Each structure stands twice: as structure tokens, then as C-alpha cells.
Amino acid sequence: MNDTARLPGHRFLHSPGPTRVPDEVLHAMSRQPMDLADPRLEATIAACESGLKRLVGSPASDVFLYAANGHGAWEAVIANLVAPGQTVLIPGTGHFSESWAVETEALGRRVLRTPWVEGQPIDPAVVEAALREDVGREIVAVLVVHTDTASSLSNDLAALRAAIDRSGHPALFVVDVVASLAAAPFDMDALRANVAIGASQKGLMVPPGLAFVAVDAAAMELSRRNPAPRYYWDWRSRQSPLAYRKFCGTPPQSLLAGMEAALGLIFSEGLDAVHARHRRIAEAVHAAVEAWSEGGALRLFCQVPAARSVSVTTIAVGSGIEPEAMRSVARERFQVALAGGLGPLAGRAFRIGHLGDMNPAMILGCLGGVEAAMTVQMIPFGRGGLERAVARLAA
Ligand SMILES: *Cc1c(COP(=O)(O)O)cnc(C)c1O
User: Fold this and answer.
1) How far does the centroid of ligand 1 lie from the alpha carbon of residue 208, in Å?
2) What is the third-level CATH fold of 23-267?
3) pLDDT confidence of 8, banded at 50, 70, 90?
4) Per-residue confidence (pLDDT) for residue 2, from 0 to 100
């Protein structure tokens, strides 16, 4: 590995975040900072807020942007909605629900978990039962990960909304759409979700470092009544019209400029077209992996076809296969950067990210690079994956 040599040609980034940043976004970020009273800065912030409200489908929500990653937005939700000692319900989806639960407990809040069944999405009936059992109404909110980026499963949010309704429990419905926003459909108002959480570096195609929450009136009201001490994350002070207050200090101007440009790209392509493109590309990946699976050494981790994410695909490998070694070959020799298995899947899986600034030829390049790396590593994979992906894209 030579860190300084220029590698010719395009490097294929297939991590499910950070994702490739479009040239239009890079260019928009390449500008001088402005003083904090400059109306151009105000206009950029306003464009980000209104674009994100439109993207999550909740024009009347409050959007709070943070100079933070997704973990920061998770903490913002806990700090604003839950007092120390209070309880939230986190249905198990894999690594990301568990990470959110661990963070919540570290902040002195209690977490009720429903078990995660490997390869399966959340069972809404289990969530309904957990809420019904809470006769003392101690659960303040249900925190749901829409797409668990480690398991590559997408949960059925409408079914979860219905389960909460059937239980008659007043808990708020908080949804993490970090890995699904601008890839899969999401409609905060139709779902009556109280809070949606996003971050810049996945479907939004912006470099890491800008997270946001969209908050409805009920969640805003609960946060006003929440006595928990907080400062940086506080939605109440961030409701100010002043840029300096909105960000509790200096706004991350370059990232905001990038976000404004990225939202412009998403809306000019059209949200339906963005979603359809992600679905088509994901189906091409699934077709390739199904062919590879015929070699007996690997398989799609998600056992429920309807729950397969359009953002990322987790491929479980059999014993005796080293996914990390294959990833190194893919990255260093073929310029295809894949993601590894996370948490309980470490060393047992690899992942192909296929969200954001992605087109059919790019995913074919990635799949070809994976086949080449698996060939070098002598992994017994079924042939013809690339051909099946081509057939799917050409259909
Ligand atoms: C990536 C991700 C996060 C965390 O984001 P960071 O920016 O890495 O802190 C949270 N939730 C989901 C579903 C994610 O995919």
C-alpha cells in the first residue's frame, strides 16, 4: 500500500455511509466562510430547514441541525424527551438499535429492549405486547431504527405505527431514518411519527458532520416539560431565529452549503425517481448475491425479501471465509471499498452500500470488483452474478 501514489481512475466507495459526494455538493462547499449576520448564510440555513421538512414529509415540524454525527442526534432526542430514570422502548434491529440503547443507558435513562432475531425485521406484535404490559405507562417513547445499516433490514414503519395505536399507549414514536432517508420512502406526517432523525453522510450525499432532527408539536411540548438539564442539544433555545442560537454557536457553514446543494439535486431528480433508482440498484445487487450464494459459501443475511433494504446489502459468509481479507483485496487491488460486519456480525459478513450518488454502471463496477476479489481469495461463489445484475438493470 502506497499512501502517496495517485491511483488512476475512479475509486468505488460502497460503504453505506459515508457515501460518495456529488461534484455539485463538493463545489458548493468550496467557499469562504461568512460573518454570522450575512443574509446569505441565513438563506442557506432556511433552505436546509425547508428542504429537510419536505424530505421527511412534515412541513409543520421544527428542524434542528447539529454540527454532529448521527450519534449526536440520538443524544439530542434522549436529552430533550427523556428525563434521567425514565424509560424508552427500543425494539431490536441489530447493531444500531443496540448502540442507541447503550448510549441511552449511558445517559442514565432506562431501556426496555425487544429481542432481535437475526435476519428478521421487528415483529410489530412484540412491540404491541411490550406496550400493553406497561400498565404504569412508564415508557416515554418507542425508538425505532428504520433501516439497520448493519443487518441491512428495513422495518415496516406503518405496521409499527399501527401496533402502537392498537396498544392504546401514549408513547411517542421516534424514527431513525439516518440510513434510509432519500433512498426509501418515508412520510413522517402520514406515519404520525413524532421525531425523525437524519445525518448528512448517507442518502443525503454530504460529507459526515451534520445531523438533524425533525420534531412535531407533541414532541416539542414534551421537551418543554422535561426537567432534564441540558444545554447544547436543547430544542427550546434552538428555536431562536438567530443563526448563532439555532446552532448553539457557529454554524457548520460548509456542510450547510453542501446540504443545500444536495437537497437541490434530490428534488430536481424528483423524490419518486430517487426512490425508484435505489430500488432498481438494490434489486441488481440482490440478484448478484443470489447467484453468488449458489456456491454455498455466502448468502443474503436478510431472510425476509420484503424487508431487504434499498440502501445496503449485508452478505453473511460461511466459516473458513475471511471477509476482512477479501475487503482488503477489493479495496487495495480493485479500488472497491466495501463495509465489514458490525457488532455480532463482525468477521461473519461484509456489506455493499448502494445508496446516494449511485448509478447502474457504478454498481456493476462494484459487483465486478467484488467478484474479482472473491476470485483472488478463492472464495467458492456461484458464477454469473454480474450477468444477473445486468439482466435486472436492463429489464
Ligand atoms: C450511520 C447510522 C447512525 C449513526 O451515525 P453516525 O454518523 O455514524 O454517528 C445511526 N443510525 C443509523 C441507522 C445509521 O445507519
Assistant:
1) 10
2) Aspartate Aminotransferase; domain 2 (3.40.640)
3) confident
4) 54
